[in-house]
Amino acid sequence: MAAVQAQVLSHYQSELVDRIRAKGHVLSADGLLTVKLAKEFGFCYGVERAIDLAYAARKVFPNQPIYILGEIIHNPEVNDQIRAMGIKFLSGKEKDADLADLKANDVVIIPAFGTEVATMEILRAKGCQFVDTTCGDVMSVWKRVRQYANESVTSIIHGKAWHEETKATSSRATANGGGHYLVVFTLAETDYVCDYIVRGGDKVEFLEKFKGAYSAGFDPDVHLQAIGVANQTTMLRGETEDVQRRLRAAMEKKYGPVDLEKHFRFFDTICGATQDRQDALEKLLTEPLDLLLVIGGYNSSNTSHLAEMGEAKLPTYFIKNAPKMVSDRMIVHYNQHLHQEVETRDWLPPGKITVGITAGASCPNNLIEDAIRRLFELRGVSVQELLSN
Fold first, then answer.
1. Which residues of the chain form CATH 3.40.1010.20?
2. Active site residues
3. Cα angle value 270/268/293 (rounded, 5°)
4. CATH number of the domain at 46-135, please?
5. Which class would CATH give 137-270?
6. Is this structure's pTM higher than 0.85?
7. Cα 32 to Cα 20: distance, rounded to the nearest angstrom
8. The domain over range 9-44+273-388 is classified in CATH as 3.40.1010.20
9. 363 by DSSP, 3-state: which?
10. What averages of pLDDT result for each successive group of 10 residues across the chain (389 residues)?
11. Using N-to-C axis directions, what is the helix angle for 136-150 and 45-60, rounded to 10°?
């Protein structure tokens, strides 16, 4: 593991980021540009562990085909590096093989998000060897929804029904053959469920509205009588707390406070690293900033929530790497509402400015360094000269 960690550091560490951290998370060229880094950003322990294990798998099985079920984490540069090591992807637009191609003793990496129970059963039946990088925080949620299922409590999962983690979690809710789940993404969807709990409604309409986001055989008239809230670990804590408060109020209104415990459960399952990054950004946003850069993969849930937080306060640009800052006149960034990259002109104001920077838990420090260097380059400033002063 020591050799593996050295290799990982050589690919993803940043001496520049370490030095800026040591200088109070601030780097400034007086009169031109000040960059402020959030106190917490970038790789978390779970991501580092997943990458270390993937690299270790390549060393332990140097001549054997190694497969990975999907992206190890949601960062394109990291996944490109995994592919460059000869690890074959079993899903995605550029997949190299299918589950059907696997044979006994083939090595399969389980990504940090985990995978669905049915997929694990297929792999076990084939006799595959596992390198399981599933994050411990994700497995804590699995434990919770399994407990709900064993007690005939329906899991209401705050998350994205299409996300790998939520699909893996929901499969644990039904693993015992009798559990049920419903995934809610927005507060508007939560309010719809609350209204149905209190007043009832059109079952057909309900099932159509949440199509693809509930368990087989789910009946809102039956399976919303006892519910337990869980969540995708990378959601906004404040929003998850709002989901549980609204559902709790609905159940209390329906069944009364005395019997609430029979009908409602809630446990906080937000990832600690996700919350640390959200808290650090919230604090950074209280300082005078002209704009915010959020760096990370566009399909990264925790990164997208950081971008949402920034957008609510000031001009925010969600980019996956430094080349997206094409010039001081144009930036290419991800628009979450349009689900595509867009161009914004005259994004970098003239004169003395302060730019905040944060990054999701799946973004390596070398990409953050590239973005910092590019920013100063656009102002005609040498970062090396700044650090030597």
1. 9-44+273-388, 137-270
2. 165
3. 25
4. 3.40.50.11270
5. alpha beta
6. yes
7. 17
8. yes
9. coil
10. 84 93 92 94 92 94 94 93 95 91 96 96 96 95 96 96 96 94 98 98 98 98 97 91 96 96 87 90 97 96 95 97 97 96 96 96 95 95 79
11. 100
